Amino acid sequence: MLLILCQATLADWSLGRMAAVVSVMIALNFKEDAVDRQTDGSEADRQGADSGGIRFRPDDVLQLECPFTETTVTEVSRFYVSVRWPWLEVDSHAKNIRWNGQRALPTPEAHEWEIFRTEPVEAALKSRDTCRVGIPPTVVHVLAVHHFDPPLVTGMLPRPASYLEVLRQGETHDPESEDQGYALDPAGGEPIRIELLFRPYAFLEPGDEVADQDGRVWRFDAAWDWHPFDEAQPSAPAWPLALLSRNGEPTPEEAAAVTRATAVGSHADELERWTELTLARPATRQQ
């Protein structure tokens, strides 16, 4: 996955080498995937997964945006343009990781996806140019949420306590690709505005048990990851749904909320709305 870790000159790092280092760091510090609470898009502006605001979860559809900020080009190559990173600070207490305060952004020839872009575009820049760097409005969907306890040491401050692993609009997860996702700190130093556009099955929480209109009992793990207790087909519940369990017996208010939310609509409607926004298919790891 593509991250902002670096040692020495960022342009010297290939995507493969960077991904390998970061994957090891995540594996060593990984705690658990997020278990998120229901929220709507109005609550999602610039709130981190661990900051007391929205807790993101897989399949969330987000819009990212970061104000373009002036900076200086430090190095240019065929595949990368390095700029002084205007937001993060050097972590002087990080051992064995030294960040030079720069970040390399790919040119079109690199054929890499990067959410941060420059104005003017990377291909038009040369060393010592002044430019601006930021994120234009960009729609992504969440593949996974990773938490770190203690926060991950990257050579930069602030140290991330979580990463969202996201895919761009139009891209379906390929389980054979290790470098497909883009890792983003939702509560990091960059002033990224994160808007929750859509959360499929926002009225349920992972681990909920429900009964559908046919009397079948299901466990909900993710929007496209349903487990029928009878192990029969079809593999998605028929609405309306009745909440049977949420960490034990649900409250009357919780049960009523699920009943209201599924009085109309269907699993197919949730999938259609998600697909329209992501222009992708559900991850193959799911139903």
Tell me the layout of helices and strands.
Layout: H1 15-29, E1 61-76, E2 80-84, E3 89-90, E4 102-106, E5 117-119, E6 130-147, E7 156-157, E8 162-168, E9 182-184, E10 193-198, E11 209-211, E12 217-222, E13 225-228, E14 242-245, H2 252-261, H3 267-278
Antiparallel strand pairs: 1-2, 1-6, 1-10, 2-4, 3-7, 5-6, 6-8, 8-9, 11-12, 11-14, 12-13
Structure characterization notes:
The protein is of the alpha+beta class and 287 residues long. It has three helices and 14 strands. The protein has helices at 15-29, 252-261, 267-278; strands spanning 61-76, 80-84, 89-90, 102-106, 117-119, 130-147, 156-157, 162-168, 182-184, 193-198, 209-211, 217-222, 225-228, 242-245. Strands 1, 2, 4, 5, 6, 8, 9 and 10 form an eight-stranded antiparallel β-sheet that branches. Strands 13-12-11-14 form a four-stranded antiparallel β-sheet. Strands 3-7 form a two-stranded antiparallel ribbon. The chain is elongated. The two termini are 24 Å apart. The model is unreliable at 1-52 (pLDDT under 50).
